[in-house]
Amino acid sequence: MKRIMNKILAICIIGLMSVSNLISQTNVYSGTYPITMQGYDQIYKNPLDSGWAGTTAAPTSTQRNGKCFTTATDANFNSGKNITYWLPNCGVMTLQVNGTVGRGFIITVTKASDNTQLSRTVWAYTNGTCSSTDITVNSNEAVKITLLSPSSKEGSITATGSSYISYINITKSTPLISSFTVNGVAGTIDDENGTITLQLPYGSDLSSLEPEITLGGTATDYSPKGAQDFTNSVAMPVVYTATDGTNTKNYNVTITTPATPPAPEITLSSGSSIQALKVGNAIQDIVYTLTNATGATVTGLPAGLSGSFESTGTNQGTFTISGTITASETPGTFNYTVTATPIVGYEGSDVTTTGTFYVKSATAINICYLVASTTPSATDTRLYPNLYSNPNYYLTIRQAASTAPSPSVYDEFDLIIVNEIITGTNAEIVALKSVDKPILNLKSFVYNSGRWNWGTADNGKSNNGTITVWQPSHPIFNGISLNEDNTLDLLSGAATKGMQPVDITSVPGSINVATAPKSSSGNPMAVAIHDVPASVRGVTNSKYILIPICNDSYDKMTDAALTLINNAIDYLLHGEQFPAPSLNISSFVVDGKSGIIDNTNNIITTILPLGHGISDITPVVTLQGVGTIYSPTGAQDFTDSESNPVEYTVTDLINNKIYSVTVKEGTVAVDFPTTKSIFFDGKVLHNPQQVNLQVFDISGRLLVVSNKDIDMSSKAKGVYIVKSEEERMKINVR
Q1: Edge-to-edge strands of the sheet including 684-686?
Q2: Rounded to 5 degrees, what are φ and ψ at 209?
Q3: Which of 166-170, 344-348, 450-454 has the highest mean pLDDT?
C-alpha cells in the first residue's frame, strides 16, 4: 500500500439538519457552515468511530515531501469503508486525492428526502502523486454525498486499498444554465465568467434563433424566451438570465459563423469503421456526421455496399454506409475512403476519412479468440491483425470467464485460440482441457499443478525467441526454412519473457515438436511446441497444439511465427494426427559387433570374442525415431551386465523407453556369426526372440527344429546351416 500524506485544506458544509441529527447517522461527518478542518479532533473523532480512518498519527515532513500539500494532514479511507456528507444547496464537490494509480472512490449523490440517487461516479486515480475531480451536483435541495473506498474492482478502478484525501471543497449551488443548444450545436458555458459561446456552420442565418436551454443549480426559470437576433452578438451579446426567484445569474451569449468557407469536418458518430464479415452478410451501418459540407462520396467499398448523404441543416448532415456484401464478392481487404463535398468557395485540400472491410469467404473458419479483456492486449499487434485480416478466418473475441462456461458456448466455433495474457488459474481455460474442440494454446502456465496437471511451466531464458525443432517434418513447419542448426526464430528482439517452455511430466503419448531453453541455471531445454492427440487429451475428435509465447513479446513475432500459427490452425482442423516418434534402438554396435535387439522386451545382448574386455565399452547406438535422444553416452562398464544389465534410456523429453543391455565375452577368442535374431557363441545357438529355427548338416539333412536356444556342443565337429523364416546363418562347431 502506497501511503501518501495529505491535508484537508477546507471542507465547506452547509447544515440543513441539526448537528445532533447528523451525528446520529452511521458513517456521517458534518458540521456547521463554514468549517475549516485543521485539527485531528475535528477530522478524526467521528470517522475513527465509524471505522474508515486508519490512523491519527501525523505524517512526517519526509512523508509529506512532494505530495499534494507540504503541510499535509492524513485522511485515510480504509478499503471498503465510506463517509457521507449531508448538504443543502450543493453545487460542486471538488476532491483532491493521493493514492496508488488504479485505486479510487465511488461517489454517490442521493436526495436527503427520499434517497433517490442523483448520480454515481466511479473515479480512478490517474496520478499517484495528486489526482483531482469535480463532482457536479447542482441540487437546490439537500443531498447526501457518499465517498466509498471500494474493496472490489469496478470500471476504471483496477486496484483496491486505502486512499488518502488531501482536499475537499464544496461549492454552494446557484441558479445556472447547464446546457445551451442551437440547431444541434452545443454552446460552451463558462459559469465563472458568465459567458456562453458557440459557432454555427458557415451560411447559417443568425437573425432568429431559439436555443434549447437546460437549467441547473437552483434555477427555476430563465429569460428571454423565444427566438432572438444574434446577428451582432459579438459586439452586443444577448443576455440570458437564470433565476430561482431570489437569486439570479446572467450569461452573455455570443453566436457566430465562419467568415469564409471552412474546411469540412467528418466525425464517426456510430458503427465501426473497421469490420470483418462473411460474404452475403449485412454490415453494421456506419454513420459519419459532416459539418461545413454539402455532401460526401465514398470509394473502395466491396460489392453490395453504398453510401448516402442526408442533410440535417445548413451545410451539415450525415453520411451512412450500409448494405449487404454480395455473395459473389472475392474475399479480401477493402480499404474505403469517404470524401466530404466542401462548401462552394472552399480552397483547401480534400477532407477524407478511411475505414476497412475484411471480407471473409462463406466457408471461413470460425475462431474463438480467448483473451483476458474484451479487446486484444496492447502488445497484440502482430498475431491478432494476422488472424483478423485473413479472409479464411472469422475471428470472434471472447473474454475468458471467471467461472467455467458450458461447453456449448463453443458450438459455433471451429477452433479455440487461448491468448497467453489470460491468468493460468482462470476457470474457463482450466476447463478447456476436456472440451472437444481443436485448441491452439499459447499459455503454458495452465499446465501447472492444480490446473491441467500436465507439467511445470517456466518463464524461459530471458529475451529468447528461438526454438529448436525436434520434428522438422511436422506439418506446422510447411513452407518454413529452418536455420542450419534446426532452430527457428519466432521472435525478433524478444522481451524479457519470450518463449515460455514447459517440463511435461504426465502426458504420455504426446509429442515434443520443439524445445526452448528454461530460465534456470544452465538453461536446460523444455518443450516449446507440444502436440497432444485427442485420445491422449481424453476427447474424441480434436487435436491440440501448445506454442507458448508470452504476451509481452506478441509485438515481436516474426513472419515465420505467423506462418507457424497459420500452419498450426490448418493442422488442427485438417489431415491426420502427426505420429509420436519411435523410441526404438535400431542398432547397438561394439567394435563392429552388432548386438541382438529385442524391441518388444527392451533387451539388447552383445557377445564379444573371449579376451576382448568389457569394462570400458563405448557402443555406437543408432535410434529409429526422429527427435529422440539416449543416455547414458560414452564408455560404460559391462563387467557385471549378465546379472545386472546396464540401462539405456531413449526419450523425446516426454516419453521414455528403457533397455536392459548385456555385453559379454564368448567362450573362444574368435568372432561368432550373428543375425538380427540369433547368434552362436561356439557352443550354444542363442534364440532370444524365440523364432522358429531349423538346423541342417552340410549334406542338407534336417537335424533340429526348435524355437528355443539350441545346444550344439554335443554335435559332431563341422559346418551347419541354421535357417529361420527370414534369415539364414552358417556356423562352425569345433
Answers
A1: 679-680, 684-686, 710-711
A2: -120, 130
A3: 450-454
Higher pLDDT, 713 or 238: 238
Mean pLDDT over 585-593 rounds to 91
How many domains is the chain partitioned into structurally? Answer: 5
* Share of residues in the chain with pLDDT > 90 (%): 62
State mean pLDDT over 12-40: 29
Q: What span, in angstroms and rounded, lies between the C-alpha atoms of 9 and 6?
A: 9
Is pLDDT of 25 > 60? no
CATH code for the domain of 626:
2.60.40.2340
Q: How far is CA 404 from CA 398, 399, 401, 430, 433, in A?
A: 13, 12, 7, 8, 11
pLDDT at 70 over 80: no
483: part of which helix (H) or strand (E)?
none
Phi, psi at 253, each rounded to 5°: -105, 125
Q: What's the whole-number mean pLDDT along residues 352-362?
A: 97
Same structural domain, 460 and 551:
yes
Triad 328, 329, 334: Cα angle to 5°:
170
Q: Does the pLDDT at position 66 exceed 80?
A: no
Q: Is residue 524 part of a domain?
A: yes
Eight-class DSSP state of 228: B
Alpha helices (runs of H) in 317-405, residue ranges in sequence order: 383-389
- What strands, in cross-sheet order, belong to the sheet with 212-217? 185-186, 175-182, 212-217
Q: Which helix (H) or strand (E) element contains residue 428?
A: helix 427-431
Rama region for 13: left / alpha / beta (φ>0; ψ in -120 to 50; rest) = beta
For the record, the C-alpha cell of 18 comes out as: 441539526
CATH of the domain at 555: 3.40.50.880
What pLDDT band is residue 140 in, cutting at 50, 70 and 90? low
Q: Quick one: average pLDDT of 483-491? A: 96
Same domain as 249, residue 149: no
For residues 212 and 331, membership in a common domain is answered with no
Does residue 483 form part of some domain? yes
The predicted structure's pLDDT at residue 233: 96
Based on the domain organization, do 76 and 220 belong to the same domain? no
Do 589 and 484 share a structural domain? no
User: What is the pLDDT averaged over residues 571-595?
Assistant: 93
* 566 and 604 share one domain: no
Single out the residue of 466, 476, 608 nearest to residue 546, CA to CA: 476
Tens of pLDDT, residue by residue over 172-186, are 667 889 999 999 899
Q: Cell for 304?
A: 453490395
Instruction: Tell me the average pLDDT across 423-446.
Output: 97
To 10 degrees, the CA torsion angle through 544, 547, 552, 557?
A: -120
pLDDT in tens, 87-102: 555 666 666 666 778 8
CA atoms of 620 and 407, how far apart (whole Å): 52
496, 462 contact by CB (below 8 A): yes
> Domain for residue 4, yes or no?
no
pLDDT-above-70 percentage for the chain: 82
Domain with 589, as residue range(s), is 585-733
The CATH number covering residue 73 comes to 2.60.120
Indicate whether 482 and 538 sit together in one domain.
yes
In-domain check, residue 9: no
User: pTM of the prediction?
Assistant: 0.65
Residues 6+ apart with CB under 8 A from 530: 502, 504, 507, 510, 511, 512, 513, 545, 546
The CA-atom distances, in angstroms, between 251 and each of 181, 218, 241 are 14, 16, 6
What is the C-alpha separation between 133 and 123, in angstroms, rounded? 8
Same domain, 251 and 381: no
Domain-terminating residue out of 232, 256, 280: 256
Continuous H helices in 473-593: 534-537, 559-573
Of 224, 256, 288, the residue at which a domain comes to its end is 256
β-pair partners for 134: 94
